[in-house]
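haha ok so turns out i had the wrong file open the whole time. this is the CORRECT one, sorry everyone. sequence first:
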Amino acid sequence: MDQLLEGIRVLFMEQAAALPFATRHLADLGADAIRVESHRASAAQLEPDLFRSKRRLGLDLATAGAP
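then structure:
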């Protein structure tokens, strides 16, 4: 069964509030949801259900030249 949002890529930087729920729904509908976050501890460890079906990209934004 094809997913409604298959082929759509969503790149997002979220904190708390409604955005984790919204992007979870996009991912559940087939979007390729990629969460950009700090390279430190992830909120996904605290609330794994909010981040299901999403991929993570950890970046060090505080250090010049860091990945």
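Strands lie at 9-12, 32-38, 54-59.
again sry for the mixup
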